[in-house]
Amino acid sequence: MSAGAIIAIVVIILIIIALLAFVVPRMRARQVHRARERELQGRRDQVAGEHHAEAESRAREAEAAEQKARLAQKSAERERAEADLHRERANMHERGMADDELIEDHEREKFSGVAGSEARDREGAPLSDQDRAESARTEPPPAVENDRATGRREGGETVADDSAARDREAAAADRESAARDREGRPR
Q1: Which of 44, 93, 157, 168 qualifies as a FRET site for 61, CA 20 to 30 Å off?
Q2: Residues 126-138: b if buried by 16+ CB within 10 A, e if exposed
Q3: Is residue 12 in some structural domain?
Q4: 8-state DSSP, 121
Q5: What global pTM score does this model have?
Q6: Which segments of the chain have a pLDDT < 70?
Q7: Phi, psi of 147 (to 5 degrees)
Q8: Which range marks the domain in which residue 63 is found?
């Protein structure tokens, strides 16, 4: 082999070594860079997955807490309603409007004069003598029985006749009361 061929081979080998010296580190750097990117992406995915799982868990806990709060609110409303019911029952008992709940059937005669016998107004307060007198004027006398089927009473008069008469009596009583008030006389 000639000296020119040997020099050419040596130059080619030096070029290959130079190329390998520059290219191999760059290739390794790219591989390292890609490995780091893959590792970082793996960590990102792992942390994001943990956060998603935690978010779902917290959302379930929040839903459960909201459900418990709704149940507690319904329970509080029910308790309030129960308290109102007991308050109303207490008011009825205080006013004597629920005495029938306190007296057994066999005790009805025993308590007939005292249990709920006192006349009361719409709010349950006992009526005064004056109020009793006014209500007696507007109510039909108990001796006149109403035949509900025919609308007639004893003596042939109709229920409508009786209510018209009551209306006239009430209007006359009102006029008389107004006249007394104008004159300053007591009733």
Answers
A1: 44
A2: eeeeeeeeeeeee
A3: yes
A4: -
A5: 0.38
A6: 1, 116-165, 178-187
A7: -85, 100
A8: 1-70
**What's the structural domain count of the chain?**
2
Q: Which H/E stretch holds residue 147?
A: strand 146-147
| Residue written as token pair 């490995």 | 35
Q: Degrees (nearest 5) of the Cα angle 127, 94, 83?
A: 135
As a whole number of angstroms, the distance between CA 85 and CA 133 comes to: 34
Q: Residue 58 falls within a domain, yes or no? A: yes
Burial label, 154 (beta-carbon count in 10 A; 0-12, 13-18, 19+) = exposed
Q: What is the pLDDT of residue 145?
A: 43
CA atoms within 13 A on the CB side of 65: 6
| Rounded Cα gap, residues 177 and 165, in angstroms | 18
In a domain, 92, yes or no: no
In order of 55, 56, 59, 63, 83, the CA distances from 70 in angstroms are 22, 21, 16, 10, 20
Per-residue pLDDT at 142: 44
Alpha helices in the chain (DSSP H): 3-94, 99-102, 129-138, 159-183
Residue at token pair 């409303």:
77
Q: Quick check: is 80 in a domain?
A: no
Which pLDDT score, from 0 to 100, does residue 15 have? Answer: 92
Question: Tokens at residue 83, please?
Answer: 């308290």
